[in-house]
Amino acid sequence: MKFYLSIFLVFNSVFLTAQNDGWNISTTNKTNYTGIVVANGRIGVLPSEEPFKTKQIILNNVYEKASQLGVSRILEGMNFGNLDVFINDELVTENTITNWKQTINMKKGSFTTTFIFKNKARISYTFYALRNVPFSSYIDIKIEANQDIKIKVIGKIESMESFQNPISTFRVLKDNETTMPILQTVAKSEFGRHTVATSATFIWHHINSTRENQRPELIHEKVSDHNNQLSFEKIVKKNASLEFTWTAAQCTTQDFADPQNESERFVIFNLLTPKTDLLKHHFDLWEQLWESDIIIEGDLQTQQDVRLALYHLYAFGRGDSNLSIAPMGLSSQNYNGHIFWDTELWMYPPLLLLNQDIAKSLVNYRSDRLEKAKEKAINFGYKGAMFPWESDDTGEEATPAWALTGTFEHHITADVGIAFWNYYRVTKDKLWLLQHGYPMLKEVADYWVSRVSKNADNTYSIKNVVGANEDAPNVDDNAFTNGSAITTLQFAIFAAYELKIPANPLWKTVADNIKLYKFPDGTTMEHSNYSGEDIKQADVNLLAFPLNIINDKETIIKDLKYYEPRIRRDGPTMGKSALATIYAQLGDAENAFRLFKESYKPNKRPPFGALSETATGHEPYFATGAGGMLQTILFGFGGLHITDQGIIQKNPILPKQWKTLTLKGIGTDKKNYTIKQ
């Protein structure tokens, strides 16, 4: 399937009256501005604080090289979201407007900007990344005149200079009396890996946009090969209004054999589909997503924070894609848009409880790349499947060669196996287990049997790895690596038993004898030579949650008290969320809530609360952190556990700041859990 991106920019037909509540976050402050992306699992559009501007458009699973000798990087697409709007020949800019306001509506998946232009016009426009047209977004524009005004609007397709050999055109397609004006730019990505095609047009509401004699005259201007423009002018009388749409579609050869024609078809689809019908379908699909939700009563700020986290996981994933989610989702090119353990260990578990369709796409992403993982194992002298630390569309290792993580951070393979067994635990889909789950678990287990080294005392070590704490490279017997290997070996045995297939006896032998080192007082050592250094993020503590390998309260508390003060202040946000979850499961609501807030509050960026990876970073939106904080809610305060019997609840607990917590639409039977003080 070739990649197609359609963006529909339409301006809101009514002025937004939303306020800060559980579904809407509004701002009138541009200071230290970090925006919120609108996305639908295929595209990410990042609006700007500047009127009618878009910062960037990210295309999911479309990769080009980051440099001539570099690894792959997710592609920043052509920008079709920048419009120039003139009123009485004066450009609408930040300096010519007042009463500026922006609102993210998480329930509807929309982002609205409103303002007043010099008391001459009231303006509103809303971005949508259409859920129903997976490569499509929609901006809805309304300009209300306070006096007679002349409006000129310029829509653009802007391609960066790195795009090669752009062909920028304007044509009017016609079928009988239906005319379809199409602005288009087609170019090669920087190093020629993909052809990228963007088409665009205007739509006027309350005017027959397809009849040439009933719409404003369109003027085409190719400012340069990289700046293709289409404009119109319109007189609007006092107290009247103009409503119109700028719609665009962007396709690449990643997903379409003929991206140029496909981009035109999507624009035509948007042009000829009534706005009310198109948006209703989008709203309905978001409504279906929110059938699984987290509802907190008594703490509005935490409700907004948690729902914004869940909004981003829903926005970055989709159930019909077989694609995964990068650490920054579709909000930036950070980490090159590659797929890490962030998905399987942090984002996937809450999605598995809340939306099995998206969760299935995440595991299918790995199934589709199993053969490449088997090739990698062979190439490094192992058996089974060895997954890359950073994955892209190819399934091969995409980590820069200088980064030791790409060569030595091997726990990713166990993380994949754990995700697969947990999918079966929740869904009980035995056909999937037979066709996808067990084949994956078998290869992962075979890898670990070949990866371990046997010691003289018949124990097993896993040597020369980078663990979850990446500050300690090339160590032996890293706690989380060993613990995750034990867990996935056990899960492979369970899967074989479930299907009545004989399990390799070595799986149990190795699982029962992999070493975990201890200090004299019983505290778990992070690796065989660990001597108390500060760590980047949680490692040992993950053996208590999510692995449940360490499950006696005394050791859990020892490990918590030892490692919490050693986590770097500038470490990634998800580390403390794991500690918070453990404290909640121990019944300590005070420490759980403290660490829950510490896990993300310092990382919130104004004005909407977008999460950066660290307390000093500024890249939105760190989806890994979203996954961690949601796990604290679900598995900590909510008391949910994924077991061989499915999802069960044990000992939920609420912080004193909350009146109730409702976990809505959990599991395949969409069960609700309500916890009260």
TrEMBL record:
Keywords: Hydrolase, Signal
Top-level taxonomic group: Bacteria
Keyword Hydrolase among record annotations: yes
InterPro entries linked: 6-hairpin_glycosidase_sf, 6hp_glycosidase-like_sf, Gal_mutarotase_sf_dom, GH65_N, Glyco_hydro_65_M, Glyco_hydro_65_N
Entries under Pfam families matching the protein: Glyco_hydro_65m, Glyco_hydro_65N
Keyword set includes Hydrolase: yes
GO biological process: carbohydrate metabolic process
Domain Glycoside hydrolase family 65 N-terminal: 36-241
Residue span(s) of domain Glycoside hydrolase family 65 central catalytic: 307-502
GO molecular function: carbohydrate binding; glycosyltransferase activity; hydrolase activity, hydrolyzing O-glycosyl compounds
Signal sequence bounds: 1-18
Protein name: Glycosyl hydrolase family 65
Organism of derivation: Confluentibacter flavum
Taxonomy of the source species: Bacteria, Pseudomonadati, Bacteroidota, Flavobacteriia, Flavobacteriales
